[in-house]
UniProtKB/TrEMBL annotation:
GO terms for biological process: L-histidine catabolic process to glutamate and formamide; L-histidine catabolic process to glutamate and formate. The keyword Lyase applies. Belongs to the PAL/histidase family. The modification 2,3-didehydroalanine (Ser) is found at residue 142. It comes from Planococcus halotolerans. The keyword Disulfide bond does not apply. This is Histidine ammonia-lyase. It is found in: Cytoplasm. It comes from the Bacteria. CDD domains: PAL-HAL. Contains an active site 4-methylidene-imidazol-5-one (MIO), which is formed autocatalytically by cyclization and dehydration of residues Ala-Ser-Gly. Its EC number is 4.3.1.3.
Length: 504
């Protein structure tokens, strides 16, 4: 069980909550902060102080005063009117992450919710009541209003939730638990939806996949390296220490680890003096992606423990400030950086695929790894497919964060588009995983032509893992199922926290 405090949730803990069904509990100290914050809201209402979002309208309506008897209906109207997300829903994992992250933010004690709201959100996590949340409709400031409103709908017994993998009406979910839906009171609707938890949730799930994929790209590249008699000198530690990037040095170290004991890799002058960049520069290119992953992880873990709603309540209600922590710019940038970093892993992988299948470049392997070149096409179109995915990634990698469209009658005149960035990062990562699955499939075929008995023990073990899900090319067949099975295998390792090499 993981205790949520509002302050120290990690990506690894969230992975366990999302993919290993780890349950949560609420920290006692956090709940004390929640109670104090709520008492402050109740005093504001009773004393008829004018505070944004408690007894005023929202956005451009912030100058409209709301009477005391209407402060609760105000919150209900907010949720219903803002639940206008569109398009296909996020995955259940992202929905679950959104509930966890919104709850964690509320536990910081700056938002003014009642304890029942936190307790009910915790129940949604532990009993897997996951809202159905459309993907499109958020500008990323004032937070993820539309998608988070769909989350809040389930809390009040409206909207839809996932039941056995299908959307179901949430009107009866609390009745089934012997409970009534939450009736929102002053500020609670705004506290639930004013935040960056959609872009952050999708960002964390994508980061989990991307980090594992970056590690997997190294052993996949190592099998390709053996297939092409790669020159090991390029991974010499002195080369990488001379430049000084720790991530580059770590990739080179892991490549030496994977290839230790290989009788297929070569040294300078044995077959050639140097390799093409897609082999020789693996530490430099992959290392640069690791630098970006480190940046993204840091920003995500800050945001996972951040108060991102508005207004925020300090000093037991003596200080209530309307600020802009809901603005998603930090995560928007992080997601755009993540897109580029993962796209590059796919770019260089596709170039290695080309070297494996091109008879002018593959060191005597059969053309297109075909069992009968000419009569059978072998892996010819697999390279086409990889090239197509890489090209699509170049379009998706266009930064979402450089765009902004004013909203709420220009009150909200600059927005982050961070949720679009997070969705595109997910799409790029899915494409990259399939490109690397194609490389793994081609490299497995190629290295078996060379002689699997000459592989390093570690890459040979990985070859065995590939062969459990995808057989060799004995004759032409429909290769789509092979690639999808390898991609699913790679994804499964991400969700289960399997790392084939400890990060240096």
């Amino acid at each position: 069980m993981i205790t949520l405090t509002g302050n120290d949730l990690t990506i690894e803990q969230l992975r366990r909550i999302l993919f290993e069904n780890e349950t949560i509990e609420l920290d006692d100290g956090a709940m004390e902060r929640v109670c104090k914050s709520r008492a402050a809201v109740d005093r504001i209402v009773a004393e008829k102080k004018t505070v944004y979002g408690i007894n005023t309208g929202f956005g451009k309506f912030s100058d409209v005063s709301i009477s005391e008897e209407d402060v609760n209906p105000l919150q209900l109207h907010l949720i219903r009117s803002h639940a206008c997300g569109i398009g296909k829903p996020f995955s259940e994992a992202v929905s679950r992450a959104m509930v966890v992250l919104r709850l964690n933010a509320l536990l910081k004690g700056f938002s003014g919710i009642r304890p029942i709201v936190a307790e009910r959100l915790a129940m949604m996590v532990n009993e897997k009541i996951h809202p159905v949340i459309p993907q499109q409709g958020s500008l990323g400031a004032s937070g993820d209003l539309a998608p988070l409103s769909h989350l809040a709908l389930v809390l009040i017994g409206e909207g839809e939730y996932w039941k056995d993998g299908e959307p179901a009406d949430a009107s009866s979910v609390w009745q089934q638990k012997g409970l009534s839906p939450v009736e929102l009171q002053a500020k609670e609707g705004l506290a639930l939806i004013n935040g960056t938890q959609t872009m952050t949730a999708q960002g964390v799930v994508t980061y989990i996949e991307a980090e594992t994929l970056a590690l997997q790209s190294e052993w996949i590249a190592a099998i390709t390296f053996e297939s092409l008699f790669g020159v090991m000198d390029a991974f010499h530690p002195a080369v990488h220490a001379a430049r000084g990037y720790k991530e580059q040095m770590a990739v080179a170290e892991r490549m030496r680890w994977w290839l230790d004991g290989s009788r297929l890799s070569t040294v300078q002058g044995e077959k050639r003096v140097q390799d093409a960049y897609s082999l020789r520069c693996i530490p430099q290119v992959h290392g640069a992606s690791w630098q970006t992953l480190a940046y993204v992880k840091e920003k995500l873990e800050i945001e996972m423990n951040a108060a991102t709603d508005n207004p925020l309540i300090f000093e037991d209600g003596e200080v209530v400030i309307s600020g802009g922590n809901f603005h998603g710019q930090p995560i928007a940038f992080a997601m755009d950086f993540l897109k580029v970093a993962v796209a590059e892993l796919a770019n260089i992988s596709e170039r290695r695929i080309e070297r494996l299948v091109n008879p002018a470049l593959n060191e005597g392997l059969p053309a297109f790894l075909s069992p009968e070149p000419g009569l059978q096409s072998g892996a010819m179109i697999l390279q086409y497919a990889a090239a197509s995915l890489v090209s699509e990634n170049k379009t998706l990698a266009h930064p979402a964060s450089v765009d902004s469209i004013p909203s709420s009658a220009n009150q909200e005149d600059h927005v982050s588009m961070g949720t679009i960035g997070s969705r595109h990062a997910r799409d790029i990562t899915e494409n990259a995983r399939r490109v690397l699955a194609i490389e793994a499939f081609c490299a497995a075929q190629a290295v078996e032509y060379r002689g699997a008995d000459r592989m390093s023990p570690r890459t040979a073990e990985r070859l065995g893992a590939i062969r459990k899900v995808a057989g060799p090319i004995d004759e032409d067949r429909v290769f789509n199922p092979d690639i999808e099975r390898i991609a699913a295998f790679l994804l499964g390792e991400a969700y289960h926290g399997i790392k084939q090499r400890v990060l240096s």
